[in-house]
Write a structure and sequence with these properties.
Elements: H1 3-19, H2 22-43, H3 54-69, H4 76-92, H5 99-102, H6 106-126, E1 136-139, E2 148-154, H7 156-164, H8 170-174, H9 176-183, E3 186-189, E4 201-207, H10 211-215
Antiparallel strand pairs: 1-2, 2-4, 3-4
Helix pairs in contact: 1-2, 1-3, 1-4, 2-3, 4-9
Length: 220
């Protein structure tokens, strides 16, 4: 079993036990595992450990497999409960990284942009080859003077969801970005997503006490 599916195994099995008989729950869990393994084998892992973004795709396979195995009767609220059960402790630890304070230090912004720039260069080199259809990124395309900003022009989660008919569920996975950013006292301003057909996913991350963060409404 893939390690990312294993992370969510206890929470997924709990949900199954609450909705099905033991026999039916086991059957649907086995289908989840089989689908996850099938997609990793056939769709690829985007370069695995060498690609710092690949874990997002592997986690998505796990959730899409579960979503399919329960006949798509799995809501955004169900997902958030499952995320909290499986990853809540780790997410809450992000509260120690207060983005209101961190992003006031320009050297931290520069360090993050350096990291994004390194990913961008590697993605340009390996995309279409070892890293498959990994994310294509533009860094701070709107030239924001504060915070961290970037945009994805492509997303393998979006490609996969559209190819397999799961686009209705994808925005629920995208919302995990909001959860993690909020946990770190941050605000993700994002009004465009590929999942909604907007042509790009635009990210602008600020501390949640920043005036523009407080004024923002309608982020996805």
């Amino acid at each position: 079993m893939d390690k990312y599916l294993k992370i969510f195994e206890p929470a997924m099995k709990t949900w199954l036990s609450e909705h099905y008989s033991p026999e039916e729950a086991q059957k649907r869990w086995e289908r989840t595992v089989a689908l996850d393994e099938k997609w990793i084998r056939e769709e690829g892992d985007l370069g695995g450990k060498k690609n710092p973004m690949a874990s997002n795709m592997l986690e998505a396979y796990a959730f899409f497999a579960f979503y399919d195995s329960v006949d798509r009767h799995f809501s955004k609220e169900d997902l958030q409960i499952m995320i909290d059960a499986a990853m809540g402790k780790s997410i809450r630890m992000l509260s120690h990284f207060n983005l209101n304070s961190l992003l006031r230090h320009r050297w931290i912004e520069r360090l993050i942009y350096l990291y994004l720039g390194r990913y961008q260069k590697k993605a340009e080199r390996f995309r279409g080859n070892a890293w498959g259809n990994t994310w294509k990124i533009r860094i701070n395309p709107e030239a924001h003077s504060k915070g961290i900003a970037f945009a994805y022009d492509t997303c393998p989660l979006n490609d996969f969801a559209r190819r397999h008919g799961y686009i209705d569920f994808l925005p629920n996975l995208c919302f995990i970005d909001q959860i993690t950013c909020s946990a770190a006292h941050g605000k993700l301003i994002r009004h465009k997503t590929l999942a909604d057909g907007d042509g790009e996913c635009n990210y602008w991350i600020l501390g949640d006490q920043d005036p523009e963060a407080i004024a923002d409404v309608g982020s996805k």
